[in-house]
Amino acid sequence: MAKAVFHGQVVAESDDIVEVESNAYFPIDALDKNFFKENTDVKTHCPWKGDASYFDVVVGDQTADYAAWYYPEPKEAAAELKNRVAFWRGVKVEK
């Protein structure tokens, strides 16, 4: 079972992980929605995956801005990432 942890709090947990470019992508349903806030200020583009959207991860008074990303409409080459979220910026993934 893989877990995404921020400041000691498990914010996502699943045994259904897809690994791409050393990132663990969790099913979006594995996120504890209490700890996520949509961040519409940041968008990025990957040439082969598509346009990424972001969530801030918030635990108590600690916030990791745009620490979770996902591809709402991934390109065909990255279709397996649809409805999946990966982490960085202080959110640790434990496997």
List the helices and strands and how they pair.
Blueprint: E1 2-6, E2 9-14, E3 18-20, E4 23-27, E5 36-46, E6 50-59, E7 62-70, E8 84-87, E9 92-94
Antiparallel strand pairs: 1-2, 1-9, 3-4, 4-8, 5-6, 6-7, 7-8
Question: Brief description of this entry?
Answer:
0% of the residues lie in helices and 59% in strands. The protein has no helices and 9 strands. The protein starts with a strand and ends with a strand.
How does this model look, in words?
It is a single chain. The protein is built from no helices and nine strands. The protein is mostly beta strands and 95 residues long. Strand 3 and strand 4 form a beta hairpin. Helix content is 0%, strand content 59%. The protein is globular and about 35 Å long.
Keywords:
9 strands, globular, 95 residues, six-stranded antiparallel β-sheet, three-stranded antiparallel β-sheet, mainly beta
Strand content: over 45%
Helix percent band: under 10%
Q: How many beta-strand runs?
A: 9
Order of helices and strands: EEEEEEEEE
Shape: globular
Structural class by helix and strand composition: mainly beta
From the N-terminal CA to the C-terminal CA, the straight-line distance is 6 Å
Major β-sheet annotation: 6 strands, antiparallel
Mean pLDDT: 97
Give the neighbour order of strands across the main sheet: 3-4-8-7-6-5
Number of helices: 0
Q: Over the alpha carbons, how many angstroms does the gyration radius reach?
A: 12 Å
Residue windows where pLDDT falls under 50 for at least 5 positions = none
